[in-house]
């Protein structure tokens, strides 16, 4: 069927997506489960395919070393805004450095601009956030996580769970 002369072809609107990545969680879970690293180019491509990115933020801890700076620049070149928090070593030897509150605040702040929130983390603390975004904000929540180490509560709270495996991992070198 051809369209009448002079009428523009309709282009389907692309789904608006908010992409939030918990870098520390993905790093440690991929390393523990697969002795591998996440392929952030592949993650971006899969999560944003046929979608309009309204915002993409990667949350990381900054230890100030050159290797980390190179990695942060790779994330920026992919299209992520990189948010950094300093690594804190406590006197008792324990460490602190998570972005749970920051990720949650940004999710709530920007979810109104999106139809889908992609949360790349396996942290079960985000189950309440996923439930709230789906119920109160009316958005779909896709969780990308390392399956064996992603909290069941988070998987259940998501609209869709995408396991980070296969092509979403870099080959071990």
Describe this structure as you would to a colleague.
- With 173 residues, the chain is of the alpha/beta class.
- It has helices at residues 23-34, 40-48, 66-78, 100-110, 127-137, 152-157, and strands at 15-22, 37-38, 51-62, 81-86, 88-89, 95-96, 116-120, 140-145, 160-163, 169-170.
- β8, α6 and β9 form a beta-alpha-beta unit.
Looking at the structure, what is the overall shape? globular
Helicity, in percent? 25-40%
Proportion of beta-strand residues: 25-35%
Described by strand count, sense and barrel closure, the largest sheet is: 6 strands, parallel
Distance between the termini: 52 Å
Report the average pLDDT across residues. Answer: 91
- Please give the radius of gyration in angstroms: 18 Å
Spatially, the strands of the biggest sheet line up as 4-3-1-7-8-9
What is the succession of H and E elements? EHEHEHEEEHEHEHEE
Compute the number of strand runs: 10
The class by helix and strand makeup works out as: alpha/beta
Unreliable spans = none
The count of helical stretches stands at 6
